[in-house]
Amino acid sequence: MNELVNRIATNVGIDADVAEKAVGMMLGFLQREAADGPVAKMIEAIPGAVDLVARYNGEGEGKGLLGGLMSAIGGGGIMGLGQQLMALGLGMGEITSLSRETIAAAREYAGADVVDEVVASVPGLSQFV
Question: Residue 23: CB partners within 8 Å, gap ≥ 6?
């Protein structure tokens, strides 16, 4: 298991398997939704992130009634990601902690300027990180 996933699992207080999937889903979401240049730099800078995105990008997308409705009306954005993370059994407090831990780690690896560009390019994300 990757160092980032272990760190996040420990700091958030969740199972490492859940953390791995959730971080992969979050990074995959950012890859789809954020400005291409900065998000590519960020993902490439985080050890193991490329593999996590490849494994979990889009996981859970369109599943269930709410996911199907979100897809039908054009995606779901940050709310769609939240629904996917809740489907993993995470509560809002854990999702917020997970987001903050992931972004804090990204800042360490990719630098604050790059990560701030990524966050600013996704509508609504700044309130969660």
Answer: 4, 5, 8, 52, 56, 98, 102
What band does 65 get if pLDDT is binned at 50, 70 and 90? very low
CA atoms of 85 and 33, how far apart (whole Å): 16
d(CA 8, CA 100): 10
pLDDT tens across 18-47, in order? 999 999 999 999 999 999 999 999 999 999
> How much is the pLDDT for 129?
81
Taking a C-beta distance cutoff of 8 angstroms, is the pair 43, 69 a contact?
no
- Single out the residue of 14, 44, 15, 24 nearest to residue 115, CA to CA: 44
Distance between start and end Cα atoms, the chain: 24
Q: SS3 sequence, 95-106?
A: HHHHHHHHHHHH
Q: Is the pTM of this model over 0.90?
A: no
